Amino acid sequence: MANFETVEVSTDLLIVGGGFGACGAAVEAAYWAKKNGLKVTIVDKAAMDRSGAVAMGLSAINQYVGVKDGDNTVEDYVRYVRQDLMGISREDLVYNIARHVDSTVHLFEKWGLKIWTDEEGKYVHEGRWQLMINGESYKIIIAEAAKNALADAGGEVYERVFITEPLVENNKVVGALGFSTRENKFYVFKAKAVIAGMGGAVHVFRPRSVGEGLGRSWYPPFNSGSSAYFTLRAGAEMTCQEVRFIPVRFKDGYGPVGAWFLLFKSRAISAQGGEYMAVRKDELQNWAPYGLAKPIPANLRNYLGMLDMDEGLGPLYMETSEAIAKIAEQYKEDPKAFKKKMKELESEAWEDFLDMTISQAILWASQNVKPEEKHSEIAACEPYFIGSHSGASGAWVSGPEDLDTPYKWGYANMTTVDGLFAVGDASGASSHKFSSGSHAEGRIAGKAAIKYIVEKGAAPAVDMAKVEELKARILAPLDLYEAHCNETTDPEVNTNYILPRQFMFRLQKIMDEYAGGVTSAFKTSKSLLERAMELFVFLREDSEKLGARDLYELERCWENIQRMWQGEVHVRTILFREETRWPGYYFRADTPKMDEANWHCFANCKWDPATGEWEMMKRDVWNIPGV
Ligand SMILES: Cc1cc2nc3c(=O)[nH]c(=O)nc-3n(C[C@H](O)[C@H](O)[C@H](O)COP(=O)(O)OP(=O)(O)OC[C@H]3O[C@@H](n4cnc5c(N)ncnc54)[C@H](O)[C@@H]3O)c2cc1C
């Protein structure tokens, strides 16, 4: 076996991941841990200051309810999420996050985040729920607060440690395993409770950007399905694994469109000039009641644009110049004011990209795009797994303790595995929490996990013989490569191993062509999915033959194994749900209609670690009475 030092770390609470959910968990758990003499440890595969989906910064906080200003109620938010997810959401979780999110945003401001305010000192809204921010350093500010809280409570931070497996004994989590991405060190974390917050997944599907553009995507490439893998392998019940997210963004640079649609009130049109949201309005009848209520769900908005593409009306465009001209028009009587406003709008347009998707600004610059002069192409991206945004995939977690919800087995945000909690993209059916809501959910879970430890925490019984076995399995790609790399002149081609890059292409091809990716125009069917399952058998076999030249590739191997699990659970769940509920995210061509009578329910599943068997199940949707 490759020579890796084993490092054992004992803690009370282990937080895996260092993103928004994890940072929220760290802040809150540190506070309660200090009061109870407990230790909290956080472990991130990257450096927390710039890790996860917010690494590059953001230009808006997407969830702010505004209760103190009387702008909205928590119930309004529950209705909004129900509508956007075509009726399928865990309203208890959404409610719990919504009632805590404003205080999280106020903490962000206290920690130094610049939220835009108007002349009267009120927050500047991008849309009903979104606040504009100077967010280039958003992640640094949030990570700093988490690290400070941990330092104050005697906690520990491990960065550049990639977590692979959960440690579970008798359906109780007892820790996690991982390896350093910089040194030959294998980590054994022993804990009384674990919070999973390792984000969502990208590059499960073949991206639009291939060849010279490979690696570019809307979702940052760092998150590879570790949350889904970790919770699945622990034996946790999962939910909404069919609900992937497809954003429509500026094409190829993946730049955000929110500011254009919401702030600048821009229109999206086909190459023929038709505004698909208006031209195809009648199609929305087919998706009633959700298609007929406002706001129109994100997937249906995508779908209307996709219908234009199917009919050969593409490319689609964002009418940037028209939107800017409309806003500036109010100033046309005063040339000086007009010039000033145009300059301001132009800089806001560019700043939106520079805050969070610099590549789009570079692409615009390289193609001589002047948004005030000419429209820009938009397109539906490849599918992503991001349960905190407009997707919903994640673990099935317990509801808040004080709400009378049917989904409750003890502690808020605990999965069906004792002591294992999930937050952000790792927890399912509670979409639209975004950065602020994920942080709020982290705080909820952090507090609940400490309560769990105080009430039930037992010293973790870790079976070190099993750890040794897993260590050998985790490091196996290094050994396999070493044993066979000299058998061919080109080490990239070898009958005894497959390198992670090649493996990823194979996974992406299956997902793209059979599970409704970009090249199959987001359409799939039972037969296609069944064929995908046949191909997964071979892919799984080959995953045992992954080879790694170095530590860097060892990480790539495990990222791809995790992506494979995310891909498989997705295929299984689309196959299980025999209807099309979210056209615009995926379309099951053999069951092309929504079936409220049979499928107004959650599609859940579970992998049994003891037998390796999968179980698929339906769970009822519960609406908060009176909401
Ligand atoms: C392109 C894009 C634009 C967005 N725009 C907005 C916006 O404008 N406003 C808004 O409010 N929200 C926005 N969001 C949503 C927001 O970023 C997410 O909701 C939020 O980051 C989710 O938090 P999380 O903790 O689940 O995941 P993340 O914040 O992504 O954190 C995941 C963490 O897990 C770590 N990790 C991953 N795998 C491992 C592993 N194996 N071992 C150890 N650590 C691991 C990562 O390094 C990272 O620290 C956007 C998201 C994306 C992708």
Molecular structure report:
With 627 residues, the chain is of the alpha/beta class. The protein is 39% helix and 15% strand. The chain has helices spanning 20-36, 74-84, 91-110, 138-152, 226-233, 258-263, 276-279, 298-310, 320-329, 335-356, 358-366, 434-456, 464-484, 500-514, 526-543, 551-576, 596-599, and strands spanning 5-10, 13-16, 40-43, 60-61, 114-115, 131-134, 156-158, 161-169, 172-180, 185-190, 193-196, 238-239, 248-250, 268-270, 316-318, 376-380, 394-395, 420-422, 523-524, 587-588, 601-607, 614-620. It has a 5-stranded parallel β-sheet with strand order 7-3-2-11-18, sandwiched between helices. A 4-stranded mixed β-sheet has the order 1-10-9-8, with helices on both faces. A hairpin with a 4-residue loop joins strand 9 (172-180) and strand 10. Helix 10 packs across helix 11. The longest helix has 26 residues, at 551-576. Bound molecules: flavin-adenine dinucleotide. Flavin-adenine dinucleotide (FAD) binds next to helix 1, strand 4, strand 8 and helix 12. Flavin-adenine dinucleotide binds next to helix 1, strand 4, strand 8 and helix 12.
Report the β-strand fraction as a percent range.
5-15%
> Span from first to last CA?
58 Å
Query: Count of helical segments?
Result: 17
Major β-sheet, in short?
A: 5 strands, parallel
Strand order of the largest sheet: 7-3-2-11-18
* Overall spatial form: globular
> Helix proportion of residues, in percent?
25-40%
Q: Radius of gyration, rounded?
A: 24 Å
